[in-house]
Design brief:
- One of its GO terms (molecular function) is DNA-binding transcription factor activity, RNA polymerase II-specific.
- This is Zn(2)-C6 fungal-type domain-containing protein.
- Keywords: Nucleus.
- The protein is mostly helical and 517 residues long.
- It folds into two domains: 180 residues, no CATH class; 202 residues, no CATH class.
- The chain has 17 helices and six strands.
- The strands form three sheets. Strands 1-4 form a two-stranded antiparallel ribbon. Strands 2-3 form a two-stranded antiparallel ribbon. The chain has a two-stranded antiparallel ribbon with strand order 5-6.
- Helix 5 packs parallel to helix 7, helix 7 packs antiparallel against helix 8 and helix 11 runs parallel beside helix 13.
- The protein is elongated, with a radius of gyration of 29 Å.
- The termini are far apart.
Length: 517
């Protein structure tokens, strides 16, 4: 149609009637002439009054305006010289359009909307701006990032992306990975693998350069690690996680503990805490993240993901669980010393002291876990329902998703303690204790397995992370139940599949108070 602009070229190139290469923020023509580049022009203009010649040579009328919705041609807006953080959608009379204030406009008019990346005016032109816009759009419209993935720290990243190429590539990888996952597209069938390689190269350059000890680099490692859960489809304890844990540990030493109110840094450490716990256990070193300012920041972040009504009851079990994982490397070292020469006098006395310590720890964990579960049931956040498809005949339903992860992680600490008690009793051949401790260990394992169906109903990427606490209960399964556990665990490897979705689980009553395990 005559008079309709066909290009987003800058105003200077259009005035000279030459092709603009659109290399924003400054095109090559304006750069050579050392003049100010107007940037990309809009394909749609609002022209008010006078002939078109009156506007020739002036600045293009911006598309972003501040105007109330109108439903008639007489109320058409005038062009404003000052851009604002708003944009318009032109509608016609062919179909009604619902605006943001829930009013329908069926005649020709203008409907105001707000661009997702409008933070300081203008539109994104650089790769960093576009990536920040895409991530911000995900944060604003994907509620699962907070309620399921527990990634509250994402809202602090868009403003940092333009200043860090490493974070830009990692965020681009994360956005593409999440989009492919939602669409059930294999990474090999898209450009995600190319972005994965680019993110790794950018991360390598950042670690070798002057950005190695920055919060942006730590955020890049965290996003790449999260994306690998979908790209590689592997288990949480595979080598790549330990490589990332080494990097996070090194960066954390350089940055120091989080300051009060630093939600970004605390959120990143909380995201990596699980991998760091496995890393400390493998290395046999003390997990300092559960102590001092580190532990306080992580505890506050963990509690912020839980419902307000149960937060006061979650503090004690969180403290005990954190203390358990902090002391696990030391306890494992004592167990290795006992097993090396079990019948010496020193080893026997050490074993008796350790069994008393483990017995007291299990009693505390049991009391606090039961109190939290009962409170969650009273608040209708946790429900136990009959489940004919489960070999344990019942399963837990919970909301939000982090509540199930939290309870499952606390149960895994109880499983580890109960297993240590049982192994020590077998080592010193105490028949009464062996039978009692095995029954106690089995009951805790059964409680753990009741969380699996709900975990499989959640995002597969979340199920990956939840399988690690379940692994410690695998030895407590009989031949029949072990087959069921393995089927559940194998199901989480099929990302994007509708796993374990069954009807009839929306109601039920709490049975926690009847279980003494």
């Amino acid at each position: 149609m005559p008079g309709i602009p066909k290009s987003h070229g800058c105003r200077s190139c259009k005035a000279r009637k030459i092709k603009c290469d659109q290399k924003w923020p400054v095109c090559s023509h304006c750069k050579r002439r050392d003049i100010k580049c107007s940037g990309p022009t809009s394909l749609v203009k609002f022209v008010h009054g006078g002939s078109r010649a009156d506007h020739r040579g002036s600045e293009p009328e911006p598309l972003w305006q501040h105007h109330q919705p109108s439903s008639s041609p007489e109320a058409a807006p005038t062009a404003s010289a000052a851009p604002t953080n708003h944009r318009f959608i032109i509608t016609d009379g062919t179909r009604p359009v619902l605006s943001e204030d829930h009013a329908y406009y069926s005649a020709i008019g203008v409907i105001e909307t707000t661009p997702p990346y409008a933070r300081g005016g203008g539109r994104p032109t650089t790769m960093g701006d576009r990536t920040a816009s895409r991530l911000l759009n995900l944060v604003q419209h994907d509620e699962d990032l907070d309620s399921i993935f527990n990634m509250k720290y994402l809202k602090f990243l868009p403003q940092r992306i333009p200043n860090s190429g490493c974070l830009r590539d990692a965020a681009s990888l994360f956005c593409s990975t999440l989009t492919d996952y939602r669409r059930k597209v294999s990474p090999s069938d898209s450009q995600t693998m190319d972005k994965y390689g680019k993110a790794l190269r950018s991360l390598r350059r950042a670690l070798r350069g002057d950005q190695a000890g920055t919060i942006e680099t730590l955020a890049s490692i965290t996003l790449v690690n999260r994306a690998e859960g979908y790209i590689l489809g592997d288990w949480p304890w595979k080598p790549f996680n330990h490589v990332h844990a080494e990097a996070v540990l090194c960066l954390s030493h350089q940055l120091g503990p989080p300051r009060p109110g630093d939600e970004l840094y605390a959120g990143l450490l909380f995201e990596n805490f699980r991998n760091l716990g496995v890393h400390f256990m493998k290395k046999g070193t003390v997990n300092f993240f559960g102590e001092g300012a580190w532990g306080q920041a992580l505890s506050e972040t963990a509690l912020s993901h839980l419902p307000m009504r149960i937060r006061p009851h979650a503090g004690p079990i969180l403290s005990l669980t954190t203390q358990h994982y902090t002391n696990v490397p030391t306890v494992l070292a004592r167990l290795r010393s006992i097993y090396s020469s079990p019948h010496s006098g020193t080893s026997r006395s050490t074993a008796l002291k350790l069994m008393d310590q483990l017995s007291g720890e299990e009693a505390q964990l049991h009391d606090e876990w039961t109190a939290l579960a009962q409170r969650a049931c009273e608040a209708d956040e946790l429900v136990e329902v009959a489940d004919a498809y489960s070999f344990v005949q019942s399963s837990y339903r919970f909301h939000p998703g982090f509540l199930g992860e939290f309870l499952l992680m606390s149960l895994s600490a109880r499983v580890v303690v109960a297993r240590m008690q049982y192994d020590l009793s077998v080592l010193y051949d105490d028949p009464e204790d062996v039978e009692f401790l095995w029954d106690q260990y089995r009951k805790i394992c059964i409680l753990t397995w009741k969380f699996v169906p709900a975990m499989l109903d959640m995002e597969a990427l979340v199920s990956f992370k939840s399988m690690m606490p379940l692994a410690v209960s695998f030895e407590g399964a009989t031949r029949w139940s072990r087959s069921g556990c393995w089927t559940w665990c194998s199901a989480t490897r099929r990302c994007g599949a509708a796993v374990g979705r069954r009807a009839g689980r929306s109601g039920g009553r709490c049975c926690i108070s009847r279980a003494r395990c």
